[in-house]
Design goal:
Blueprint (H helix, E strand, L loop, with lengths): L4 H5 L10 E2 L2 E2 L10 H10 L1 E4 L3 E6 L7 E4 L9 H18 L7 E6 L8 H14 L5 H5 L5
Parallel strand pairs: 5-6
Antiparallel strand pairs: 1-2, 3-4, 4-6
C-alpha cells in the first residue's frame, strides 16, 4: 500500500526518464554528475573549452549516458543568490540542448561575466562551446531552441 506521491501525480504511461512538471521535461538524478569521483574523471579525461561567460569540460562517457554537472563556487560570487542563478541558467541551457548532444559527460562552470546574462545568451554560448567540442551539430548550434 506504500505509494509514492510521484506515482499518483505522474500520468499513466509516462516513464521516469520523461517525467514532466506542468508539461516541461525535467532532468532526472541519473542525468546529473553528482559524485566527486565522476567530477574527477571528467576533469582528468576531458577537454576544456573556454567561452566569455562559461567554461565547459567535455569527456567521453564511460557508462554510455549523457550526463552533466554544474560547479559554481564562492570564487564566482560570495552571494548564494547569484551562484544559484548561474547554476539555474546553466542547467536550463543544458536541458534545452541535451536531446541533440552526442553521448558524453560534461562539467559546466560559470564565469563572472555571466552574472548579467539572460537565459538565451547562456544557451547560445553553451551551444557554441559544445559545437567546438564536436558533441553538438553545427546546424543546431547556430539556432538553439527558445533563443
Amino acid at each position: 500500500m506504500n505509494r509514492h506521491i510521484a506515482d499518483e501525480i505522474s500520468p499513466a504511461g509516462v516513464s521516469d526518464a520523461f517525467r514532466t512538471r506542468s508539461g516541461v521535461k525535467t532532468l532526472q538524478k541519473a542525468e546529473k554528475i553528482r559524485f566527486k569521483s565522476e567530477f574527477d574523471h571528467v576533469r582528468n579525461c576531458g577537454v576544456k573549452f573556454v567561452g566569455k561567460g562559461m567554461l565547459a569540460v567535455v569527456a567521453p562517457s564511460p557508462d554510455g549516458l549523457t550526463r552533466c554537472g554544474v560547479v559554481c563556487g564562492k570564487k564566482y560570487s560570495l552571494l548564494s543568490v547569484e551562484r544559484n542563478r548561474a547554476r539555474r541558467l546553466l542547467w536550463e541551457s543544458y536541458r534545452l540542448l541535451k536531446s541533440e548532444l552526442e553521448t558524453c559527460h560534461l562539467i559546466l562552470i560559470p564565469r563572472r561575466q555571466m552574472a548579467d546574462w539572460k537565459r538565451q545568451q547562456a544557451t547560445k554560448e553553451l551551444a557554441a562551446l559544445l559545437c567546438r567540442s564536436k558533441v553538438l551539430a553545427r546546424e543546431f548550434a547556430e539556432s538553439p531552441p527558445e533563443c
